[in-house]
Design goal:
The protein has 454 residues and is an alpha+beta fold. The chain has 2 domains: 345 residues, no CATH class; 106 residues, Immunoglobulin-like (Sandwich), CATH 2.60.40. It is 43% helix and 20% strand. The chain is built from 15 helices and 16 strands. A hairpin with a 2-residue loop joins strand 15 and strand 16. Helix 6 crosses helix 7 and helix 6 crosses helix 8. The longest helix is centred in the middle third of the chain and has 30 residues.
């Protein structure tokens, strides 16, 4: 390693006084950048298109927080399905942990929305209008002239337009495209709060990608700091082969010619040759830059590459160790439970609670009557005619309303349930009863409740 490295007590984009140092990253080119561009097209297609995808007439993905209803893979998850959502979130966390342990911070460089939006959209607009890193730096240092004002104005207008577009796509995940289009076409006065919320989110997007930029990754996001406890010597990361590259810049020394192209293309401004750092997002820009230089100087590519520390030191290529095997097993178990719970749950969920403040009543026929508040949630995409029967005792189940109990798709029905049971069927005090919820003669659910007898 280089001899002039000192311990860093601050992010690379801050100076000794804590002032911001702007990063002017060079426009990357190369094999890995092409792969990232292709992946970005797939990712953006999913981000924009997922709210339009239908499964059985229902959205593929919908996160309706207002109505406490989520649709995942076309299946409706209500607030009552908290356990299923918890399994999904836990599975996502373990997925990130597994990928970090095995492949480092590749999520940040390839799939994180912050990186994709900044590097593949906003920075591309900047390159197109202001030029590459040298031209941009020169423009920012230049006095305000007509040409500079024109370029900056056009750039920021496009930034605002893109921010508003991304915000509305983001909102589609929570409202669905049809509802969003209704809101957009309606008069603003009908949706003042939603319109203000959209402007606030758009302003935050614009501020982040215009000014705050890579500081989200280096100063706000805790994921980079998690690497310190998640990575080990077998984790595959973007790594500099110091055994081959050192000493730098000498004919008789290593392959690194100290051209510093790896630094010029880094979107967070670090020197990857100093080892793994919290700012590195594994974007592979430095790999492309180094491979290009190695080709020009007629030396083998791969001085900077995806590899583990153990791979560089010992040539060890296996990515498996005890930790990522354990995470893989736990992730497989969690996903298995998630899909089993999602696709084997009951089509309806019934909540039956005794009416507050009521006691048992003896009817004119001599039966014991209890009154309950009932709520039934239809988790399917079809309308259901329901029937509730008493399973555990001889008795009758009546509703306060005599209308047929029909529940629409993805909706709830509430009402009062009157349950009458022969005294001979009951013991004194509290009894346990079971009811069945039937649709066209098929029992969908069993509900248990307490029943008071005098």
């Amino acid at each position: 390693m280089s001899e002039d490295i000192s311990f860093r007590d601050r992010p690379i984009n801050l100076d000794a006084q804590g002032r911001r140092k702007w990063v002017y990253a060079k426009n990357p080119t190369g094999k890995w950048f092409k792969n990232r561009t292709f992946f970005t097209l797939i990712w953006m297609s999913f981000f924009i298109g997922a709210p339009f995808i239908k499964i059985g007439g229902e959205p593929f993905m919908l996160l309706d927080i207002v109505n406490r209803k989520f649709i995942i893979f076309g299946a409706i998850i209500w607030a009552q399905d908290t356990f299923i959502m918890a399994l999904l979130m836990l599975s996502f966390v373990f997925f990130i942990l597994l990928f970090t342990v095995t492949f480092g911070r590749i999520w940040c460089g390839w799939a994180c929305p912050q990186t994709i939006f900044l590097e593949m959209i906003f920075r591309k607009i900047e390159y197109w209008i202001e030029g590459d890193f040298k031209e941009r730096h020169k423009l920012d240092q230049a006095p305000w002239t007509g040409g500079k004002i024109f370029k900056k104005t056009i750039k920021h207008i496009l930034f605002i337009v893109v921010s508003i577009f991304l915000t509305n796509v983001f909102l589609m995940w929570f409202t669905g495209p049809n509802r969003l289009f209704e809101i957009i076409t309606d008069p603003i006065g009908l949706h003042t709060q939603g319109f203000v919320a959209m402007l606030i989110v758009s302003a935050i997007f614009y501020w982040i990608y215009s000014f705050f930029r890579e500081q989200i990754c280096t100063m706000v996001c805790p994921y980079g700091r998690m690497q310190g406890v998640l990575l080990d010597k077998k984790s595959v990361i973007v790594a500099y082969d110091y055994k081959r590259g050192e000493p730098r810049g000498t004919k008789e020394g290593g392959d690194c010619i100290n051209c510093q192209q790896c630094i010029s293309v880094c979107p967070t401004g670090i020197d990857i040759r100093n080892g793994t750092q919290l700012e590195c997002i594994n974007c592979t820009a430095c790999i492309d830059a180094c491979d290009s230089v190695m080709t020009k100087v007629k030396k083998p590519k791969g001085l900077i590459r995806f590899d583990s520390i153990e791979g560089i030191e010992k040539g060890h290529k296996s990515i498996w160790n005890v930790r990522n095997k354990a995470y893989s097993v736990v992730l497989a178990i969690l996903l298995g439970f998630f899909f089993v719970m999602l696709f084997t749950r009951s089509d309806v969920e019934t909540t039956l609670l005794r009416a507050p403040g009521t006691l048992s009543i003896i009817t004119a026929e001599g039966k014991v009557l209890n009154i309950y508040n009932m709520k039934i949630v239809n988790k399917t995409h079809r309308q259901m005619p329901l029937e509730i029967r008493l399973l555990s005792h001889k008795g009758t189940v009546k509703r306060s309303s005599q209308a047929a109990l029909i529940i629409d798709n993805q909706s709830t029905v509430e009402g009062v349930l009157l349950i009458e049971i022969e005294p001979s069927e009951l013991s004194k005090g509290k009894n346990k009863i079971e009811l069945g919820v039937f649709v066209n003669g098929e029992q969908l659910e069993t509900v248990k409740a307490g029943f008071l007898a005098p």
